[in-house]
Amino acid sequence: MPAVTRGESALRESLNLLAPAGALPIGEGWRVTGATADVVFPYDDSVFAQVPVSGADDSRDALDAADAARAAVAALTTAQRKAILTDLTARVREAAGRLEDLLVLETGKPRVDCRTEVSRTLVTLEATAEEVSRIHGETVPLDLQELGRGMIGYYTRKPAGIVVGIAGFNYPLLLATHKLAPAIAAGCPVIIKPAPNTPLATIELLAMTREVLAAHGVTAAAAQLVNGDPVVGETLVRDPRAQIVSFTGSAKIGHLIAQQAAPRKVVLELGSNTGFIVAADADLEAAVDAVLRGGFYANGQACISVQRVVLERGIAERFSTRLVERMRELVVGDPRDLATNVAPVINAASGERIRAMIDRALAAGATLLTEGPGEGAAAHVNPVVLGNVPADVDVWCEEIFGPVVCLTVVDSIDEAITLVNASRYGLQAAIYTASLASAFDAIERLEVGGVVVNEIPGFRSDIMPYGGVKDSGIGREGPRFAIEEFTVTRMAMIRPARPTRPTGTAQETTA
After folding, report:
1. Which residues make up the CATH 3.40.309.10 domain(s) of the chain?
2. Does domain 8-270+468-490 have CATH number 3.40.50.11540?
3. Catalytic residue among 303, 399, 484, 485, which?
4. E-only strand ranges, 19-161
5. Whether 269 is catalytic
6. Is 397 a catalytic site residue?
7. Which of 89, 225, 257, 334 could lock onto 125 through a cystine, CB 3.0 to 4.6 A?
C-alpha cells in the first residue's frame, strides 16, 4: 500500500482511481462542484486527499435526473438487472485491493477489518444478483368472500421509486452496497450519500456502477452520489420524490430523518449498546475469546460490537481475570499493518467523547480493569475494560462506538435477560451457554432483531434479515429483504366473465 501523501495526483495514480478528480456522479455525467473538503487519515491526522462537496442544488438536480430515469429503470428486465449486478461484482472483485487501501486510509480501520469489508461487499453483490430472479408475488383466493366468486387475484412487486441511501462512516463501502445493489435489483434509481469523513471508496463504487450501467445501455442517472453537510441529505430526504430513505447511522439522526421523510417509507439501521450474556455453564475460554474478537474489531466502531457483558456470578471473577490477561493479545498500532487489531477511532471528537464517557463511569463507581484509554492524540483510544459498571451511566445506557467493554454481574440468566432488555436499543444480542433451555429462553425473550448463541453478537451474514427493534431502527436489510423494502405490492383483481350468483345469496358490497 502506498504511503500516506498529501499529493492528490500521487494518490490517484498509486490507487488507479476511476472517478474524475473534483467531480461527483450527478445526473448523466460527472459534475465538478468547485468546493472540496479534506479527507484525513485518522492514524496520524494527515490530509491525504480532497473530495468534492455538493450543495442543496446538486441534491435537487440529482432528484430531477433520478425522477426522469424512473420509468426506464423500472422497465429493465430481470435478465438486465441480474447482468448489471453480476458485472458490477466482477468489477469490484478486480478492484478489491485498491478499495481495501482506500478504506484503510479514510476509515482508519485495521487492514484486516477493511479486507473483511471488501469481501462482504462482494458477497452482498453476488447474493443480490441471485435474488433478482426471486422477486415474485402470490395468488390470492378472492373467492373467500362471496363478492370474489369467479374472480382471479394475484399480486406482483413493483419498484417503489427513487431510493435515497445514506451510509455511516464505519463500513462505508459495505453499507452503500446494501442500499445500491437492492435498489438496482428492485428497478429503482438510487442516490447515495456517504458519510463526509469516508466518501472515497463509495465514489469509486459509483464510478464502477456507472461504467457497468453504460455498458448495458442504461442511463447513468440510475445511480448517483452527493456528498456534503446535513443540508445536502435533508434536501433529498424531505423531497416527496424520494419514496424510500434507507439510513445507517446514529439513533438521533435516524429519528430526525424519519420525521423529515414522513409519511414516506424509511428503513433505519441505527445503533445499539449490545448485550452479551455469559452463563455459568458457558465455555469460559470461548466466551473470553468472543469478547476479544467482538468488542474491538473496527476499533469498536460497530453497532453490534460487544459493549455490555452480563456475567453469571459463578464465573464472573474467573471470566474477568482471564479477559484482562488476554487483553495483551490485542495489537494496537498502524491500521495499514495486517497484524494490527485496534487503531485510532475516526476523529478527535470521537476520541474525546469516548474518554468523557469512561470518566463519568469511573466517577459513578465503575472500575478500570485495564490500562486507561490514554491521553495522547485524541483519536487514539486504547482498548478498555470496565468492571462493576452502574446501569444508569451513559457508557452502559448509550452506544459508546469505541473500543470499550463494560462488565457487570447478576445471579441468574433470568436477571441477565431482564438487564439486557432494560435498554432503549435492540439490534442484536448474544448468549454463551451449554444449556439449550437457556439458549432458547434468550431467543424467545431478548427484545432484539437477532439473537446469537455461542458466537459474537457482531455476527452478521449479509444475506440474513438484519435490523433492530425499539430505538435500533425499523425495516430489514439483506438483499432479499431490502428488495422487499424497496418494492410495493400491486394487486390484480380480475373478473373473467359476468358473475352468476346462487339463488338467495345476499349481495355483498365493496367497502
Report:
1. 275-453
2. no
3. 303
4. 23-26, 29-32, 36-41, 46-52, 138-139, 152-159
5. yes
6. no
7. 89
